[in-house]
Amino acid sequence: MRTVNRSREPAMQVVFNHPMMYVIDYPAQDAVEILDKRAGRVGLMQGATAERFRREFQDFLSEERDEDQLADFMEAYSAVMNQKADRH
């Protein structure tokens, strides 16, 4: 019989859901997926890149921001969002 470890982190966790942007964290894979809802583009970051995004996004969210600032933040990661989001 297989033992189930219930203390594991969730397979995925929605971190941010906004009309412009969607962020999903995949802790077990050390990955973060970001979706630009306006452009219909998605990107997946892993490892050090995902960790950097997590830090920068937490810092970004630590202050009240407007939609222009969110658009600017997303623009900084536009190169990562290189896949068409036709499955979301």
Describe the overall structure.
- This protein has 88 residues and is α+β, with helices and mostly antiparallel strands.
- The protein contains two helices and five strands; from the N terminus they run E-E-E-E-H-H-E.
- It has a five-stranded antiparallel β-sheet.
- Strand 3 (31-36) and strand 4 form a beta hairpin.
- The relative contact order is 0.19.
Strand order of the largest sheet: 1-2-3-4-5
Order of helices and strands: EEEEHHE
What is the percentage of strand-forming residues?
25-35%
Major sheet size, sense and barrel closure: 5 strands, antiparallel
Number of domains: 1
How many helices? Answer: 2
What's the number of extended β-strand segments? 5
Given as residue ranges, the uncertain stretches (5+ residues, pLDDT < 50) are: 1-6
Percent of residues in helices? 25-40%
- End-to-end distance: 36 Å
- Structural category is alpha+beta
Radius of gyration: 14 Å
What is the global morphology? globular
Overall residue-averaged pLDDT value: 87
In short:
Helices cover 28% and strands 28% of the residues.
List the helices and strands and how they pair.
Layout: E1 13-17, E2 21-26, E3 31-36, E4 41-46, H1 47-61, H2 67-76, E5 83-84
Antiparallel strand pairs: 1-2, 2-3, 3-4, 4-5
List keywords for this structure.
88 residues, alpha+beta
